[in-house]
Design goal:
Two copies of one chain form a homodimer. By secondary structure, chain A is of the alpha/beta class. Chain A has three domains: about 30-100, Winged helix-like DNA-binding domain superfamily/Winged helix DNA-binding domain (Arc Repressor Mutant, subunit A, Orthogonal Bundle), CATH 1.10.10.10; about 105-215 and about 375-385, 2-Layer Sandwich (Nucleotidyltransferase, domain 5); about 225-365, Nucleotidyltransferase, domain 5 (2-Layer Sandwich). Chain A is about 40% helix and about 20% strand. Chain A is built from 13 helices and 16 strands. Chain A has helices at about 5-10, 30-45, 55-60, 65-75, 140-160, 195-200, 210-220, 280-285, 285-295, 300-325, 335, 340-350, 370-385; strands at about 50, 80-85, 95-100, 105-110, 115-120, 130-135, 165-170, 175, 180-185, 190, 205-210, 230-235, 235-245, 245, 325-330, 360-365. The structure holds a DNA duplex.
DNA sequence: GATGTTTGTTAGTGAACCTTACGAAAGGGT
DNA sequence: ACCCTTTCGTAAGGTTCACTAACAAACATC
């Protein structure tokens, strides 16, 4: 057993650097607790409708008294309504059931990731009520912004109920304030989209990265749990990560940008970014479709798809291992992704990682189709209004 | 512009699945807020010593009144002491300075990741005061646990101050309760180490994965910020991830397990796990040392190191891209890692990812040497006692 | 009809933070 | 020397929030 002398300690300069154990945090007041508990009530009702005050109290651990108080507050704000009495025959006073005021608000969800801007009016459950589309016609910069405004305008005009908020899923890099730091396709640099839209419409607006919106949709409406990666394959390849139930943004808000990661050690086609063998050169739909068209036989087409899946699997394996992901979901054209490609991804990832507990990884297509980003954008509004944190 | 009919909605089953927007959370009481604010005070003082009540109040946003109250409470618990008056010449009543009671407690930090179990007595700043070592002699299971107890016993006996807590960094998979779910080298399966040690010593005990402890140490004592990956190279290869200032555990507490991820598309040596080309087959120190010994010239040795670095870079690239990491730190034998290998990792990762903002990635060796796990274990105790929430 | 159960509300208590106000202790100006 | 200003820490009292205790209402069961 050795003993360090003071000089050893000094030599390592341990006294100099002061530890930063905790992340810089802010004060918490009782009113913040109130807000949290408010969200808790809304959350509970959101997941299971038609519960009584006593039910919610039991679930949340709050007292019936406190809960009554919270509910009264939420009723005056028209976020909650009483929906009648419970009818089953039990002893005791019959319960008055509550529910979110689901038919009292609309949400506007917008998806800027495609060739045309798409939007929809949704209800609080995330069901799509009305759709709208705005061809972009190659517009960039301020013109593109104007098209977004026009799209939202048309949806707002069609709403028959108060609008809870506007959610936007944008490609590119978006910071926490909803400023699009960089979106090459749309010609945006430091575009303060959220602030502009909020000013223009006087509504709550949330702007997020499209893949992050998608991963939230999958979490909310799909069967996915809180740790998941959603890979979007389209004109480009991107991804959104959900860790512990909340999206990962990354140190420069660019988390999920895997399209230009080089995959494999055997070269590959040249990419628009200048490198060789980027994930996109194998998977982006234009290249993939071209390769499929060039394949002479069904067998050859299968080979193309399996190769693409293998490449994605090679890129995903280190991520799945490092993050101990239990679930990866693919989103994109079903006719390309579903089947051989998905199977191949799963096989490749399983072959290249160690399942700590066997049967660890689930890999599947999303069930939400093309609406995933719009519906995810709506979820961001719900989260914002219901209050996360 | 299309409009969805109700049947479309039904067809997609949107009404059926209820969104789970928010992660299941628990109620928050005023007393929890109090705890949070207590931590905030300790945190503020931990980062910069010798501040007055008024200073802390300004920093945290709490009022001087509230702060006086919190400080009084912390002083009665001997966690904070008054250290005299401020001496600079200013108008107004001179400030009475406060500091953490840095000389009033010891922390026990233990590292189980090496051939021998190592431990130390540390002060609140993380400086090592006394060391102890306990050869494992190949013991596994209960015998290994007994060795851990003996090691801690010897350190506790040597402490001249009350012990704030015991931190343990263990290899393998450790859950949030400090149960070692699986540590093949130590022959542990579902070993409730934290509970056992807490029972035995009547002290606060924190048990974490060794790489997670290391990444906390690097964050606390090194220059690393809140988004970082720390790769440990030794008998095996592992990693710890810090995202937004807090460690990532993964869906099955196995985050960071990258040693058995297959890297590259060109085969590789056979691994103990049965696969070919695992990261460990290129990087684990026994293999690396053997390869170096077999290399005839300095030039060949350089090649071996560069090859190893390249392999690590290939595995890291997708992770760095997906998580948008700004910093990767290596920990392990300096004579192997520092130099050609580290350079090669950096080059490879940069060449295989897209730096969204140029100069994005910092890649370097840790400056904490062999003590990194022990000191990280001490940080877990500080976090636990100061209260992370 | 008496008893027990469940629901939701009223009344009162304690915790935690706030605002307002004040004494203490210094510097600076006349 | 005196007064004014600044800064620090503490008191006193108010507000918010959730809790406990108690109760009325409404139902089932015996």
């Amino acid at each position: 057993m050795r003993t360090t002398t003071p000089s050893f300690v000094e030599a390592h300069g341990q006294g100099a650097a002061r530890a930063r154990v905790l992340r810089p945090s802010t004060k918490v007041l009782p009113e913040h607790a109130r807000g949290h508990n408010r969200s808790l009530v809304l959350q509970t009702l959101y997941r299971a409708a038609h519960q009584s005050r006593a039910d919610i109290a039991r679930q949340t651990g709050l007292t019936r008294v406190t809960l009554s108080d919270l509910v009264a507050e939420l009723i005056t704000e028209h976020l909650i309504v009483e929906t009648g009495q419970r009818e089953d025959a039990r002893p005791g006073k019959p319960a008055t059931l509550l529910d979110l005021n689901r038919t009292a608000f609309h949400i506007v969800g917008v998806d800027l990731s495609g060739e045309a801007f798409r939007g929809a009016l949704l209800d609080l459950d995330g069901a799509i009520l009305e759709r709208a589309e705005q061809p972009r016609d190659g517009d960039v910069g301020a013109d593109a912004t104007a098209k977004v405004v026009a799209l939202i305008e048309s949806l707002v005009a069609r709403a028959t109920l108060p609008i809870l908020g506007v959610g936007v899923g944008s490609p590119g890099i978006v910071d926490l304030d909803g400023t699009v730091l960089s979106a090459p396709n749309l010609g945006w640099t430091n575009e303060p989209l959220r602030a502009q839209l909020a000013d223009r419409f006087g509504l709550a607006v949330v702007v997020t990265n499209d893949a992050n919106a998608a991963v939230l949709a999958e979490h909310s409406f799909g069967a996915a749990d809180g740790d998941m990666m959603l890979v979007t394959v389209g004109h480009g390849v991107g991804s959104g990560l959900l860790l512990g139930g909340s999206p990962l943004y990354g140190s420069r808000f660019a988390a999920g940008e895997i399209g230009h990661v080089v995959v494999g050690t055997d070269g590959g086609a040249e990419c628009a970014c200048g490198k060789r063998g980027c994930l996109e050169t194998w998977l982006a739909t234009p290249r993939l479709s071209a390769a499929l068209a060039a394949a002479p036989t069904a067998h050859a087409r299968d080979g193309v798809l399996r190769e693409a899946g293998q490449r994605l699997g090679i890129a995903l394996a280190p991520i799945v291992g490092a993050l101990n992901l239990a679930e990866v979901v693919l989103s994109g054209p079903v006719e390309l992704l579903d089947g051989a490609l998905t199977d191949s991804v799963a096989e490749t990832v399983r072959a290249r990682t160690m399942d700590v507990f066997h049967g660890g990884l689930t890999l599947r297509m999303t069930t939400l189709g093309d609406d995933i980003v719009m519906r995810g954008a709506a979820v961001t509004v719900l989260s914002g209004v219901l209050g996360v944190s």
